[in-house]
Amino acid sequence: MARKLKSDKVLFLATLLLVCASVVMVYSASAVLAMGRFQQPPYFFLLKQVLWAVLGIGLLGIAMRVDYRVLRRPIVIRSALAVSVAALIAVFFGPEINGTRRWFSIGGVGIQPSELAKVAVILFAAATLERRMESMDRVVRGLGPVVLVTGVVCGLIVLEPDFGTAFTLLTIVGMMVFAAGLPYRFLAGAALVLAPALAAVLISEPYRVQRLLTFLDPWADPYGDGYQIIQSQIAVATGGVLGQGLMAGVQKLFYLPHPHTDFIYAVIAEETGLVGAFVVLLCFGVILWRGLEVATAAPDRFGAFLALGITMMVSFQAFFNISVVLGLLPTKGIPLPFVSAGGSSLLINLLAMGILLNVSQHTSHRRAPVARPG
Amino acid sequence: MAVNPGAAGGWQRVLQARARFVFCVMALWGVAIAGRLVQLQVVDYGFYVERAEKQHERTIKTPARRGELRDRDGRVLAYDVAADTVIADPRDLEDPPGTVRRLCAVMACTADRRRRLESILARDSAYAYVERQTSPRVAERIRALGLDGIDLIKENRRYYPNGSLAAHLLGHVGVDNQGLNGLESLHEETLAGEPGRVLVQRDAQRQAFRRVERRPTAGVSLELAIDSYIQHIAERELRAAVRGHDAEGGSVVILDPRTGDVLALANEPTFNPNAWSGAASDARRNRATQDVYEPGSTFKIVTASAALEEEVVRPDDLIDVSPGVIHYGRRPIRDIRNYGSLSFADVIVKSSNVGTSQIGVALGAARLNRYVRRFGFGQMLSPDFPGESRGIVHGASRLPDGDLARVAMGYNISVTPLQMAVAMNAVANGGELLAPRLVRAELRGGAREEIPVRVVGRAIKARTAAMLTRIMEDVVTRGTAPAARIPGYTVAGKTGTAEKLLPGGGYSRTNHVASFGGFVPSTRPALTILVVVDGVAQFGGSVAAPAFRRIGEAVLPHLGVAPNLDGPPPMLVSAEPASFPAMRQRPVRWEEPAVAAGSIAAASGVMPDLHGFSAREAVAVATDLGLSTRLGGRGVVVTQVPAAGDAITPGQALTLTLDRRAGAGS
User: Fold this and answer.
1) Which of B17, B75, B199, B415 has a 20 to 30 A CA-CA distance from A73?
2) Which entry of B297, B343, B357, B515 is annotated as an active-site residue?
3) Contact, A292 vs B19, CB < 8 A?
4) Beta pairing partners, B198
């Protein structure tokens, strides 16, 4: 069938808008920080982010033009998984940064393997679920491989430790399995098994419990444990409706813990107000909506699960990050996709968007009734 | 739920259903986020803005320059200097004990001070004073230490360049430069100005960005009626009188009869307002306005005024004062000796108690009290003295003769020295009671707003005042106060020696309030002077009158008041100073004229500077130089031809123009 391949323009534009916002906000959030804490010119983080954005959009362009079905090949998936796992193991031999080993560096460029691992696991899960969708009511046959691979990768990530990313990955895969038709009784069972496991993981590290307690009542210790949460809320709130104006925010000046990475949404809210915060939220809403449409209209199951996984990866992470910034969820080291400063995350997310856009080219133009907004 | 994806397209139905579910969950989450944004940015906006301001911003008040206090010639009596204050932000201190150690090394702390510093710096606050208004040297050394959390700010510190001069009038300020006494406290709002506001924004690393919200508005300066020179003389002579007679204290009030201006007001003991906290509260009290005393015989001028004005007696009516004692009430009233029979004038001149009490009884309480009130007793006279006393006056229209007789001679009534001086001043100026004026003008920016002279009312007719003046002249020439004579000037005055009340009742014979009040020159008064010395064994004529004389001798030439007695005939060319523009500024001349003249005479051949010299002094100098002098106007020299420094030859003409000092009123 020779039909013109049209990708989803709205999806692309939403992504591009976020990347542009990223470049502006990363500069605003990091200029003083770069000079102060890092003894660098104010453009330090801006230049890096622009470089990554250009590379990432290039990568997106390439991924858009590669037929996603190529990715179904076992060789591709296995290599992706193998590289990810190898890299995840490699970080343990790297230097410790802030008490964690999440990074290793090649030629001075920091690489975060867990980002790549997310895409690899999504690919693997999509390919596996495509074949085993019919067996979803059988634990070993239907879920075995997915659970195994996800478990190993998540386990490695937790060891870094990077609980947030592991949790994100777990949720993404969980959503994919759910979409594949996991019986609800399995879901209940999983909840019974996972809840204690989650609790165990939580309690195993004292800082996690502490974070949770702080989240529940940040004002109990406004200068200690509650500091990040309160500072973030102050930043968001003082933005008001129209914001303080670009570059005019005060909270990023060393009050906010990670103004250009994990808490960049707070800077956006402070400087562009409710309006800017809504625009960014809306962009992710659009990605969620269009991404799920792509998933439901995909020509095959692989494409559908892939689209769903990628959509969830972006939107879940985004909502989670924003919720943390707004004090709705406990602090997790999860960046805001496309917006937070950081090469690995931006590159991988843009690559994933490229894949999603490629899937969108193959959808039948039948409108799925499922994913209408509102 | 059983899923049956086996059918063709079945997987899509399952996927669509499940995706719809996922979408709904995510959409709900999105709505929750949006709601939270609205809550934070719109609903709770105010709360968080307040929080943010608290941590980002601090408003610092920048002190306004306090208005100056100046004397009538613009000499500064009180002004602000900038001083460094050491402040700390205890929350910023990394090592409080170390900081205290290093500060103390610079500030030389006592053990007590070190402990206090330690407790201050241990507090969980963001602002604490380490040392207010420290010396420039300590400030410099602390700055050099560069301690974290220790900072220096500028504060204003009041400085009184003349030390204790006019201390009771000026008052003093507290450590926050707020007025605590005297004019400083009374005119606090005028003087203080409005502090400025500086908003200091800080980031989490405490780097500050400053923004001036409002500049401080400097306070309004006050021009006082005080003449620093006269004040200085008054204080010097009062101190000499008090120390010389081993007195408890005393006051001098000098008024300008024409305006009521307080030219000087001195109290002993006194204090230095630069170091007021070390002074006894007794020394800080303005006795002249806050303390009352029984005036004794000086008060007889009131009785005499009433009697003359009411025509109860004429000056030459004879009054029988023998045998030097009279009985009104329980205790006898005595004269120092039996004068036999005296004219009414001599009753005052000799200060006969027997005679005065008879006159008082003849007047009756209602008439006497009317004059007591007209002379300003029992009232507050000026808004310029905090804590001014009204005195204690029995206003009853009927009094037992015993009480009435004693009021007539200045007992049974309490007045302040200021009130007594004001009453004396009314006689001096022909009968008008003028409110004492201490603040002459407000200097607001460049503008001078004069505070008008306030006439309280007429105390007595001019004719009565003239008669009384004649009598008071005799007091000095042949009465109780020969020591008050000032060579070259006619003096009118009245002595007073009030026995002090003993704590158990009755009056002391050895503990007196000795006073002398008078005005000079009596024919055209330029000064009203009251000297009160408290707690001496001697009499007004021997304690207060000499002080009066010395003050007059020093001040009259200073004011350019020409002698009216036995003076050389003035070589007056023209009495009209109209050809000369009114001079606001008066030449400043502190030296004794004799000294200046002497030094000038030596340097003949060059014209000396005669500005500020009185006609007499100038003529004396000119004569020494062999110049023939032509004078124009009255007062002191304001212009001279040839000018100072010009070459002169004997026989050359010198033309001087004189003018009364701008400060002298008129």
Assistant:
1) B17
2) B297
3) yes
4) B60, B212
- The reply to whether CATH 3.90.190.20 applies to domain B59-68+75-220 is no
The reply to whether A315 touches chain B by the CB within 8 Å rule is yes
Q: What is the DSSP string of B320-337?
A: E-TTSEEE-SSSEEE-SS
Fold of B587-659: Trypsin Inhibitor V; Chain A (3.30.10)
In a domain, A332, yes or no: yes
CA-wise closest residue to B413 among B333, B516, B295, B531: B295
Q: Is residue A63 part of a domain?
A: yes
The reply to whether A374 falls in a domain is: no
* Helix or strand holding residue B622 (H, E): helix B615-625
List the one residue out of A345, A344, A337 whose CA is nearest residue A283.
A337
Element spanning B62, H or E: strand B57-62
pTM of the model: 0.58
The domain tally of chain A equals: 1
Going from the C-alpha of A221 to that of each of A94, A259, A332, B380, B635, the distances in angstroms are 34, 21, 19, 61, 80
CA dist list (Å): B501 to A186, B417, B536: 110, 17, 13
- Say if A367 falls within a structural domain: no
> Is residue A180 within 8 Å of residue A135, measured between CB atoms?
no
Kindly state the average pLDDT of the residues A218-228: 69
Distance CA B85, CA B133 (A): 5
Q: What is the pLDDT of residue A94?
A: 74
pLDDT the model gives residue B336: 87
Alpha-helical segments (H) within B540-592 = 540-558
- Mutation site for B-interface testing, chosen from A132, A296, A329 by largest number of B Cβ within 10 Å: A296
CA distance B100 to chain A (A): 25
**Token digits of residue B528:** 């009203």
Contact between A133 and B11 using a beta-carbon 8 Å cutoff: yes
Report angle CA A309, A313, A318 to the nearest 5 degrees.
Answer: 150
Amino acid B456 reads: V
Beta-sheet strands, E only, within B340-487: 341-343, 432-434, 439-444, 447-450, 455-458
Q: Show which of residues 56-95 on chain B sit within 8 Å of chain A, judged by CB atoms.
A: 56
Tell whether omega for the bond before B269 is within 30 degrees of 0, i.e. cis: yes
> Whole-angstrom Cα distance, residue A68 to residue A357?
9
CB B40 within 8 A of CB A326: yes
Domain extents in chain B: 59-68+75-220, 228-559, 587-659
Kindly provide the ipTM of the predicted complex, given to two decimals: 0.90
**B496-535: pLDDT as tens digits:** 998 888 887 778 888 899 999 999 999 999 999 999 999 8
CB spacing of A288 vs B52 below 8 angstroms = no
Amino acid at A286: V
State which fold the B228-559 domain adopts.
Beta-lactamase (3.40.710)
Domain holding A65, by residue range, is 25-361
**What residue of B is the nearest CA neighbor of A322?**
B33
Which DSSP category does A183 fall into?
Answer: -
User: Is B297 labeled as catalytic in the residue annotation?
Assistant: yes
